[in-house]
Amino acid sequence: MGQSLVQVYLHLIFSTKNRYPFIHKEIEDELFAYIGGIIKNLNGIPIIINGMADHIHILCSFPRSISLSDFLKTIKASSSLWIKTKGNQYQYFSWQDGYGVFSVSSLKKLIVENYIRNQKKHHQKLSFQEEVLRFFDEYHLKYDEKYLWR
Fold it and tell me: In this structure, are residues 19 and 55 in contact, taking their beta carbons and an 8 Å threshold?
């Protein structure tokens, strides 16, 4: 093959530090758009970004020119700096240290997109912790509980 072709969809999940409810309704659309811009600048394609006051979900295509850890590090650092410009109530904003990243097949892309779109509805019945543990079970991920909710 004379060219390098890549199509990798990722479902990213991460929360605010200590799951503090920093993501207020007044800024969430702007925050999600800003994060979409970061992803585009990194040569990824944001498909949908949504979340709750204490965490977000991102479905995007993953660019082939950056490592996964640098991709997440840039998204989190840049958006954290941006949100701190939105007022004194955000001066202590930060994202949690870790993150969850799950591969998404082309066949499941629409399912994940709808799941992310309906975050507010899901969380009427399910806590963030329950949601994350479901993903871990579905993907057969092993984890150490002492590091999980930092």
Answer: yes
What are 104's strand-pairing partners?
9
| Greatest CA separation for the chain | 53
Cα–Cα distances in angstroms (integers) from residue 117 to residues 61, 102, 123, 142, in the given order: 17, 17, 12, 27
| Both tokens assigned to 147 | 């590091």
Q: Give the pLDDT band of residue 149 (cuts 50, 70, 90).
A: low
For the record, the structure tokens of 45 come out as 């394609």
Q: What is the dihedral of CA 78, 83, 87, 89, to 10 degrees?
A: -120
Residue-wise pLDDT tens digits, 40-79: 999 999 999 999 999 999 999 999 999 999 999 999 999 9
